[in-house]
Design goal:
Blueprint: H1 3-7, H2 28-107, H3 113-139, H4 145-163
C-alpha cells in the first residue's frame, strides 16, 4: 500500500449484506469497522490468554529455579559426605595395612637362637638360686631351728678337725 493510496479519499460503497431479512443493508465501512472491532476483541482475548500463560510459566520458572537450588544444596552435602567417606576409607585401609604388617611381624621370630639359649640358661640359673633361697628359708622357720644349730655344730666340728 503506497502513501498516496493510504491518504486518498475513501469511497464508501454500500454492499448489501443480508444478515437477516429484517436488517437494513450495512454500508461496507461499517462492515469493515465490525471486522476490525471483532479482530481487536479477538486480539485482546489472545493477549489475555498469553498473559495468563506467561504468568503461569513465570511461576513454573521460579519453582524450577527453587528446585534447582535445593538440588544443588543436596548435591553439595552429598559431595561433602562423599569426601568424608573417602577419608574414612583411606584411614581404614591404612589401619588394615598396619594390622597386616603387625601380623606378619608376629609370624617372624623375634629372637635369634643364641639369644633364646642365653635366656633359657639365665632362667635355669635363676631357678636354681630360687631353690637355694627356698631351702635357706625353710631352715630359718621355727621348727627348723634345732636342725640349723645341729648343722652349725657339725660345721664347727669340721672346721676344728681341719684346723688340727
Amino acid at each position: 500500500m503506497s502513501w498516496e493510496s493510504a491518504n486518498a479519499p475513501r469511497r464508501t460503497t454500500t454492499i448489501a449484506l443480508n444478515l437477516s431479512p429484517m436488517t437494513p443493508p450495512i454500508p461496507a465501512t461499517t462492515h469493515t469497522h465490525f471486522q476490525l472491532q471483532n479482530s481487536i476483541e479477538k486480539l485482546i482475548r489472545q493477549n489475555e490468554e498469553l498473559l495468563r500463560k506467561n504468568a503461569s510459566l513465570q511461576k513454573q520458572g521460579r519453582v524450577i529455579v527453587e528446585e534447582k537450588m535445593e538440588v544443588l544444596k543436596r548435591l553439595e552435602k552429598t559431595e561433602e559426605s562423599n569426601i568424608e567417606l573417602k577419608k574414612l576409607v583411606k584411614e581404614t585401609d591404612r589401619a588394615c595395612k598396619d594390622m597386616q604388617i603387625a601380623n606378619q611381624d608376629n609370624n617372624e621370630p623375634r629372637f635369634t637362637l643364641s639369644e633364646l639359649r642365653e635366656v633359657i640358661k639365665e632362667k635355669n640359673i635363676l631357678k636354681g638360686r630360687v631353690m637355694e633361697l627356698e631351702e635357706e628359708l625353710e631352715a630359718f622357720k621355727p621348727g627348723a631351728k634345732r636342725e640349723i644349730m645341729r648343722l652349725d655344730d657339725e660345721e664347727d666340728e669340721q672346721a676344728d678337725r681341719l684346723a688340727a
